[in-house]
Protein 1
Amino acid sequence: MTDERVLRGIGVSPGIAIGPAQILEWDLPEIQQRRVAPELAEAEVQRLRRAVGDVQALLEDLRVRTERRAGPEEAKIFDAQIMMLGDEEFLGEVERLIRENQLTAEHAFEFKSLEVRMRWRQSSNSMLRQRTADLSGIALRVLRKLVGHPVGEVLHSPDGRPAVIFTRQLTPGLTVQFEREQVAGFASEEGTRIAHAAILARSLGIPCVMGLVGGIERIQEARTVILDGARGTVLLDPTAVEIAAARDVESRRQALEQELEATVGQPAVTVDGTAVTLRGNLDLPEDLESALHHGAEGVGLLRTEFLILGRTELPTEDEQARFFQRVAQRCQGRAVVVRSYDLGGDKFPVPFRPAREANPFLGWRAIRVCLDHPEIFRPQIRAVLRARRDGDVRLMLPLVTEIEEVERTRELVSQCADQLRREGVPAAQGVPLGVNIETPAAVLLADEIVERCDFVSVGTNDLTQYTLAVDRGNARLAGRFTPFHPSVVRMLKRVLDAATDAGREHSVCGEMASDPFATFLLIGLGYRILSVAPPALPMVRWFVRQVDLNVARAAADEVLQASRSRDIIAVVQEAVAQHVDLDLLAVDRLPGLPGEATLKAQF
Ligand code: PEP
Ligand code: MG
């Protein structure tokens, strides 16, 4: 496709979406700019209050529906929206505009919400930037109510077909908020494969392309588009022939997926009989069933920060314990690696109001927040200790850069265990403590870290970000963000050697492990435990079953000598081609498998 109608971005969630384009940001109703007679101002304020009340009721309803669809934790996303809408300071300013400037309720509300949105969008606080999409969603509903449009159908396309939603920035809150039947796919100008919204889109199985820099200018509302979430492309105004071809690709892909599903009950062993353990990464509670359905052998990464995403307060110890217990019971004795809150960076949910930071990714985040706030950390540790009675629940620490962070956590764990015993609460007396190796500091200290912890798991997303000094969420730099960089590959080897020498369990849980090409390299390097995004499990398992360990080892040896990402990718691609007929499988169209387009985008 060299066509001018093709927009190229990054495929972050596979699948083909065909439908009318809907630009979220611009879907505000047209507001007439007329004045209200002073004696009618109070009635206008009442009209505003009624509209706000109706939208609050609608959000409550969405909350209930989300609870049914995705679970109680996701439903709490709406608490934050309901709270935002009930902000008296904001509403007071809107009312002042009505009373003092004689604006209509819709004009005043639009004016104020656009003002706040601009302020948030330009803010250096990533949490506020993330919340702008929520704000837009609320404003959209209130304004539609005020001008008499149906508020509950904000996202329905004019002809009733599910829309392909275009937005500048897709946030985790926004992703979870949409009903699947309203959305065929997502496209955004910002973001990359590793952005948390992308991870969520994959979890929800909604095709998504990010990093369409400048793309919105080229899209016209309601025109049909074909979005290919594997290739990372959006085709504008497709012909009937192109639509038929896309449907054909989609059905072939689905046929292949069925074939992949058939591998679920089969062990992940290479052709020469080497077993690889495939665990699942859990972002949302609903991912648990998806992971088990796809044959996950336990949970290699349970991201706890999504338990508080969009909530107004932290989950209690009991809530966390219940959730960890449920996961442990469902995993029937297999490992469940609970990672302590990885707050900060691009994950600052509402209960946190951090001071403004110039560099949030280098700031007060993850284990630093938890150790500075034992009142946040303790309930989580206690919940893990309680859940450990139900299975092999473990605790893993994100963003470790100092040995002391492991030691201080150990102390906290033992204090919590003592407390629980004194209180007579049934709980384990200790928990295997692991380190998420995701900073160059942790790699260089790996041989000392493994002496002080029970297991390590490499988080290649952050490790790549911090090693290459490339923001994982910056679409402009997506071409530079690659775990196939020689420095990252050598670090993976270094961690593996340190853990092997110390006899510690070692795994990879970054998105790299969900990519079969990369899986091939990891197996060649010597990793035998991988934690994978649930939808990618069938493909990774199928792929492992095609691998000849000797070929993978030889490729890894060659890769370790290479000094360029380009050469590493070429070696891996050539070796993979010995196992898999890339043409037959239309490789660049397969979920999670980097095709030519993706490989090119890595430079
Ligand atoms: C990683 O950084 O690779 C990782 C697994 O953690 P997260 O993506 O949640 O930062
Ligand atoms: Mg990380």
Protein 2
Amino acid sequence: MQDTLPDDWPYWDLVMNTATRLARDYGFDRIDIPILEYTELFERGVGTASDVFVQKEMYTIAEPNGKDLSLRPEFTAGVTRAFLENGMGSWSQPVKLFMFGPIFRRERPQAGRYRQHSQFNAEIMGEMDPASDIEVMMLAMNLYRELGYRGLAFQLNSTGCRACRPAYVAKLSAYLRQFEDQLGDVDKERLAKNPLRVLDSKAPGMDELLADAPHLVDHLCDDCADHFGELRQLLDALDQRYTVNFRLVRGLDYYEKTVFEVWAEGIGAQAALCGGGRYDLSPEIGGHSVPSVGFGSGVERIILGLKEAGIEPPAAVEPPVLIAHFGGVTKVAATQLAFRLRHAGIGTWVAFASGRRSMKSQMREADKRAVRYVLVLGESEIEKGVIAVRPMQGGEQTIVDSTQIVTWLKEAGC
Ligand code: HAM
């Protein structure tokens, strides 16, 4: 878990503002949901065979009534609960929502993986058409493009549905069992609990071992095959680069049909900027069917990639004015002046340090903040009703009548 320091915020602003603008352009509305939900929601929604449960990643809080709460390990289950509880099934369909916020997973700490990370997440709920898969996929892709990423491509797969997946999983298990003694402990456990996840194994030798494994896309039912075919046609129509990756099986149980990631070149081991896909987990938590598709993208991970690619965010806007004073009555006048300028829309720094702060240290602050003007308020200026204005980017000091200061600064472009 980490602190987000002021120096990081220009990156966060860039990512969140770009994501918000694009999401709104694509017709998504913002929603916020609680950070805590009943643990049972995640058991049913995310699934007990998911990595989150198998690897005991949730932070759970025991409650006196026995209904434990957990810090959310992802957004999708909570959003589905919110959809049902707020009667969104009666809103105009589909419902398109986006959200930001912290996500908690007790993962093994490693580069680009944190126990608290922040996600930008978008969902289209109540729509089965593959065109909605494209909407969320392109929202993710165009976000990274606008931010300046290069070498972007979709990784795509279909995980089938309840009708066609079990027969495939049986075939895959039979294939994997031939090599059981060559599998590591993690993959042995996956083979027993969730054989699809073995496809995601990063263990050495797995490329060779999986070379002849059956591919799910060759075993889809007609419905899933049609969906996948139409999705590929739409991607081709939009000239999008994608790779059908039979090993793309995501760590959450709820996916059906489409699963995708966006990979970028040159961002090291954590090549996936986002992950998502299609699901219908409403029936798991007691609702009617709500076919949905969405993705989540880690903000920290996006920022890490921007830094590695040397992409700089626009510098934060600093106040253009600093008011220097000498303490005592001059501090009172400086405080009044600061709020007068701020009220007029002119960003202003003033040293509120108790006691005196030397003029030299105030000028150093002005330098550091790269302000355009320092307004000096000494006792003699106050007596005369004037302000000494020192331009910091060259030029002579000017004396300005204090009643005229707002007009003067505005005319100077502040
Ligand atoms: P996920 O793949 O588990 O999917 O996470 C989505 C994204 O969150 C990842 O691609 C990555 O950018 C970021 N992420 C995940 N774990 C970490 C971590 N420990 N540290 C830093 N970043 C991380 C989901 O969470 C699904 N709920 C996405 C979704 C929405 N599917 C459908 N709708």
